[in-house]
């Protein structure tokens, strides 16, 4: 039976991961290492030898081209487990290397090897301008930042930094510029006759790395205020009303007082030459006044827009004009929202493709509404086959966790999740929409183990906190008939991987009963795997647990655990007061972790009204 995707992923992780466990006169050996490593960095490798009755020698080497590096050379005469770091050679391009393992005993030897991929070192390079748009004749200021994957500034020589105009002409160039503490500051004055359009900055390092950034030059007038239009995220077939909101706000935060003309339309996209009267665009116009908050609100009766008719695609559009009292200045705002006949959609999440007999089968369901957003406090019904069913209630993220006892499961099992307890089949009427409730289906198969032994990591709810150590749990079933006669302890090994490398490892001894005539199932054995320095594991901790049975079978599982995003260096920035008069003095206070490299820029909010800019966030880096 094919293994579930999580174990297929494990096969990739463990390589190559596992330099195949094998026998030599009853000896089992195994080596684990990441299948993808970074050149120039320290990586971790773990080696096992189980059951030697005479001295044996283990030799592990890394081979790349004609070069060979010995990672471990160890002679042992008893069970052996050790994890050690080794230096990965620096490469200038992706390179395939081999991990070779040789076990030598008296007059006999065995060798196994596996391939690993060595990647170039990973660095983060960023170009940032002081604003996204300039006028002809203004000075363009920009900085280049280089960091490693841990956000530590790195030294870099930029061989060429060049600036190109919209016609791809090079108008400025800087050669052989070194970063100072990870930051390179450059500026260039634009001539008053500069061509309007998009300009591109290109920076190339001495390592051949290349990054790009663009900005615009054009004539513009900074707006006095902005008009924001608020619509529902989606209009559903079950909605009776919709609330429209139009707000005006000056760039310094004060509300705009004025009158509003709002035109709200249903836009029907035709799918055929035949057009019914109800499929024509329908618009309604409203004359409104802003309140003291600078906003005008209108509740719209949706019955006039005939939501139940037509099978064509429908969307809604709101165009608003806000005229400022006293000046007659008019600014506009536009908003658009979609229409959906899909009321609820249920999906399975984190559900394995296979179940392990006797191990709890865990998974999650998620319920989303017409706007594709999570629906909280919603009933959802999950069933496994014809004999097991549960009613769940979704949490704040629209998800609910479930588990089923698999002791009596056989062959394949069908899972189903729906938002209504019973299905309602409404008759089809041509040209008429009906509310849609989408049901989720999932088929799972039985996972095969030669020894009838299983190891399964258990799910957690939500993301792991990044600011404290924690543990994750695993269930296991060990068939005592597969153990040695006098065996009372079985070692469960774990690896914790993050960003492609093994960062934590260890072993957990568990008590077992040899020659037991049935698997140890009634006690629901569990083991806890520690996760330390969780901040450094973000955004995911990939945990691998495994044990090697006496007859050589590898019993294993792996799972990705999401971690809340946070950084080691805590930074805060604040003004002495939230509001000041023009020409008044203020104080800006910056606090950061000792040793932090900080860079600050200030930008007129009006500029961002003209053209948005992608800001650096924890998610983007």
TrEMBL record:
Gene Ontology terms, MF aspect: serine-type endopeptidase inhibitor activity
Keyword Ubl conjugation: no
Domain Alpha-2-macroglobulin bait region: 455-610
Protein name: Alpha-2-macroglobulin bait region domain-containing protein
Signal sequence interval, chain numbering: 1-21
UniProt keywords, alphabetically: Glycoprotein, Protease inhibitor, Serine protease inhibitor, Signal
Protein family: Belongs to the protease inhibitor I39 (alpha-2-macroglobulin) family.
Organism annotation: Champsocephalus esox
PANTHER family to which the protein is assigned, alphabetical: ALPHA-2-MACROGLOBULIN-LIKE PROTEIN 1 (PTHR11412:SF160), MACROGLOBULIN / COMPLEMENT (PTHR11412)
């Amino acid at each position: 039976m094919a293994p579930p995707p999580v174990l297929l992923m494990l096969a990739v992780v463990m390589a190559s991961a596992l330099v195949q466990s094998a026998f030599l006169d009853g000896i089992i050996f195994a080596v684990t290492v990441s299948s993808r490593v970074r050149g120039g960095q320290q990586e971790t490798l773990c080696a096992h030898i189980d059951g030697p009755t005479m001295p044996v020698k283990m030799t592990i080497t890394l081979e790349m081209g004609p070069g060979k590096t010995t990672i471990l050379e160890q002679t042992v005469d008893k069970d052996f487990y050790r994890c050690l770091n080794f230096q990965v050679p620096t490469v200038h391009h992706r390179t395939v290397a081999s991990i070779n393992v040789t076990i030598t005993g008296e007059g006999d030897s065995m060798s196994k090897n596996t391939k690993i991929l060595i990647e170039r070192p990973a660095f983060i390079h960023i170009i940032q301008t002081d604003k996204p748009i300039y006028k002809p004749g203004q000075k363009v200021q920009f900085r280049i930042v280089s960091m490693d994957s841990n956000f530590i500034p790195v030294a870099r020589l930029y061989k060429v930094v060049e600036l190109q105009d919209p016609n791809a002409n090079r108008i400025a160039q800087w050669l052989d510029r070194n970063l100072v503490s990870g930051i390179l500051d450059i500026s260039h004055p634009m001539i008053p006759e500069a061509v309007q359009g998009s300009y591109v900055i290109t920076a190339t390092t001495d390592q051949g790395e290349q990054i790009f950034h663009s900005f615009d030059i054009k004539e513009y007038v900074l707006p006095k205020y902005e008009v924001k239009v608020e619509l529902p995220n989606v209009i559903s077939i079950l909605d009776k009303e919709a609330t429209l909101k139009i707000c005006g706000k000056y760039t310094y935060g004060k509300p705009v007082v004025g009158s509003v003309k709002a035109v709200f339309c249903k836009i029907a996209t035709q799918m055929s030459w035949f057009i019914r009267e109800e499929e024509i665009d329908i618009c309604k116009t409203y004359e409104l006044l802003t309140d003291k908050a600078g906003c005008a609100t209108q509740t719209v009766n949706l019955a006039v827009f005939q939501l139940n008719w037509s099978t064509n695609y429908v969307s809604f559009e709101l165009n608003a004009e806000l005229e400022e009292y006293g000046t007659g200045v008019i600014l506009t705002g536009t908003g658009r929202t979609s229409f959906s006949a899909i009321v609820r959609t249920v999906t399975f999440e984190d559900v394995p493709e296979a179940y392990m007999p006797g191990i709890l089968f865990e998974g999650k369901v998620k319920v989303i509404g017409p706007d594709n957003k999570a629906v909280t406090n919603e009933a959802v019904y999950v069933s496994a086959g014809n004999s097991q069913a549960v009613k769940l209630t979704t949490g704040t993220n629209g998800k609910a966790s479930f588990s089923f006892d698999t002791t009596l499961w056989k062959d394949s099992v069908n899972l189903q999740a729906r938002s209504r307890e019973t299905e309602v089949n409404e008759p089809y009427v041509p040209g008429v929409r009906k509310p849609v409730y989408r049901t989720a289906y999932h088929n799972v198969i039985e996972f095969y183990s030669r020894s009838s032994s299983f190891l399964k990591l258990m799910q957690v709810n939500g993301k792991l906190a990044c600011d404290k150590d924690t543990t994750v749990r695993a269930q296991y079933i060990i068939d005592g008939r597969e153990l040695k006669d006098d065996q009372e302890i079985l070692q469960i090994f774990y690896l914790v991987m993050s960003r492609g490398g093994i960062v934590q490892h260890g072993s957990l001894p568990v008590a077992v009963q040899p020659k037991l005539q049935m698997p140890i199932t009634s006690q629901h054995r569990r083991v806890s795997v520690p996760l330390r320095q969780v901040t450094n594991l973000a955004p995911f901790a990939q945990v691998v647990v495994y044990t090697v049975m006496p007859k050589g079978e590898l019993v294993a599982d792996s799972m990705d655990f999401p971690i809340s995003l946070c950084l080691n260096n805590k930074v805060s920035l604040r003004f002495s007061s939230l509001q000041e008069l023009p020409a008044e003095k203020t104080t800006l206070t910056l606090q950061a972790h000792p040793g932090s490299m900080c860079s600050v820029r200030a930008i007129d909010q009006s500029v961002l009204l003209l053209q948005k800019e992608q800001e650096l966030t924890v998610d983007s880096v």
